[in-house]
Amino acid sequence: MSGPRVNSFFLGNSSGVNFSIILSPIDEETGKSQLANCSGSKRAGDWNLNVTPGMNTSKVTISLTRNLQLCLPNATDCCTTPLCVVETLQVLACRDSVMLAHLLIQAEIYANSSFTGNVSENATIIPNQVFQPLGSCPCDLTAGACDVRCCCDPECTPDLKQLFNESCFTGVFGGDVNPPFDQLCSSQSMEYTPDWFPFLCVQSSLNNTPFLGYFYHGSTSTPRVPLFKIPLQTSPGKLFTGYRQGDPIMTEENEYFTIPQQSMAGQCVGNAPVAYLQNFDVKCLTNLASYKEGLPHDVRINSGAGDFIQQNVIYRTITNMGKFITESESLHTAEVLCQNVTFAEHYTFIWKDKNIEQINVTVFLGSLCDGEILTQRFTVKFLSLKSTNATELFGNPGYQVGKPVRAANMNASDTFGSLNIWQPAGRGLCTSAAYTPVLFGLDSLSGCILEVGINEDCGLLRGKVTEKLNSLIQATHIGKRDNSSYSDLNDWVEIIRLDPFNSDTNVSSGNLKGICLDIPANLNIRIIFADVGAVQGIPQQEILAVQISYSTVIWQFQCGLTCENSISFLPITASVQFIKVPAQPPIPMTRFQINYTEFDCNRNDVCWPQLLYPLTRFYTGEPYSQCLAKGLSLAFLVLLAAIMSNPWFSKIWNSSLV
């Protein structure tokens, strides 16, 4: 063993078995350990023996009780050498002086390298990190003790270094604080070295190394803000600059205003912040045991201008429980526990510019009994202060994330249309599935299950599936903007439909029953949009095109034990994908940029356009004023050399001397 504790197991019934431990010195002449008897005890020297009995197995633990720290000056009860313990132990299991089991242990334990003594309080002088490395051995982290794998630690003795000599820390952390750099003449390698390297290399000592630039004066980092709590602005005269789209709404206690919402995994999160100008409508399942109340309705909200507004709450009682109680696990009796809980909460935020003017809340209460499943509903809707007759006049005409996508049916007298996806309920069957509108900017995937018999005709099945999918899209055009007018056709884009097959064509799989080919089970809705501007700093997003396509599958009837008079299931899905494209197409590359790639600085090591790089604004190694002064000085010297090299200058110089 090499640690202060070791475990072993005794197999069999340990009733009446006496466990003992003894120190067994090695005979120097024979090299054998002395024979042991059953007269030992559970303690021998610095060793203890502990037995944990079990049914047919007993756990035997042998532990060392002495201190394993290396001795410091004038210290006792410690290890004088790195190899602290070298002993031979024998563990015996006896019953009525008869030895049942025998275990021999050879212990070689080294002293701990961690330091537990008192550290001197003398102040350490830290050198200037710009001109001198912070330490010659950065991995030396423990004072007065050897740090494992730190071969430059002066506290590590040669015996300790042998334990980790093959796995020492490398690089700057391991003590190589002045590694040779590539520009040093002595570090020239035979590979990937240009011909002009000997003329431009640096001849310098390693003490003057560019790696010193990686050391900076330490700075105090700002503390991390706790979850769901952020500091507000505290500039004099104005505590808050207003909300922007997507900003979390704050309360008077400087915390997030939260309402239960659905996460990406589909589960409800109770403490989800409400984002400014983002509507939502969610449903959460709960029962009486897991029911939790949300934020109290007397919490005041930060309006965005620094003041706080109170919620206007109206309480109502639910009369029709069937819309909310979806399942009952047991019959109601007189002994069933019931509680008055919240069934639904509807929030309406009246806003203007970047501020919230008013908050109206309608709370529906009802009785929830033990064993019932409640479907809670939470809605948030933002209405502009300029709204009239429930028709919202947006300050931003573009789409906002979370708003329903507007649709129109231009082929009907009533041009109002819809673009929906499924919202399954109950068993997830298509016959009972409800619809929910497609929300702008939110990719989604929904589906339902269609019941199919084994004798189903493939042609009728394709038509039935296509009819179910087409029922989601009761529109021919999609609005470019959220305020698209039904009377102006230029405000709408036509839906591009890619039909999967010709319904008149009979695609057959032969005489096989229960197999149908090319079933359009997947509906793909792709919406392309772009940022076409901004209103009060909020991006104005516009839909450019909408495409609808189908993906086909091969349906095969799934049988159980028998296939007669049974029903199989066909899952059909609808996916929505929003694709953002640039508002303007990118500038195409010129023929010069395509053919002459040697002038492209992004694809070549040698970049001629950056020949005078130190004199440009892109160079940040020195202040621009110093670079400009050095450049002008260099230009003056070059001009002076050119003048002095001309013959007429020498004639003038000679004549002036005469």
UniProtKB/TrEMBL annotation:
Keyword tags: Cilium biogenesis/degradation, Glycoprotein, Signal
Domain of life of the organism encoding this protein: Eukaryota
Keyword Acetylation: no
One family name in Pfam for this protein: TCTN_DUF1619
InterPro entries to which the protein is assigned, alphabetical: TCTN1-3 (IPR040354), TCTN1-3_dom (IPR011677), TCTN1-3_N (IPR057724)
A GO term from the CC aspect: MKS complex
Keyword Signal: yes
One GO-annotated biological process of the protein: protein localization to ciliary transition zone
Domain Tectonic-1-3, first and last residues per copy: 241-384, 398-581
Tectonic-1-3 N-terminal domain sequence ranges: 112-221
Subunit structure: Part of the tectonic-like complex (also named B9 complex).
Family the UniProt entry places it in: Belongs to the tectonic family.
Protein name: TECT2 protein
Taxonomic lineage: Eukaryota, Metazoa, Chordata, Craniata, Vertebrata
Gene: Tctn2
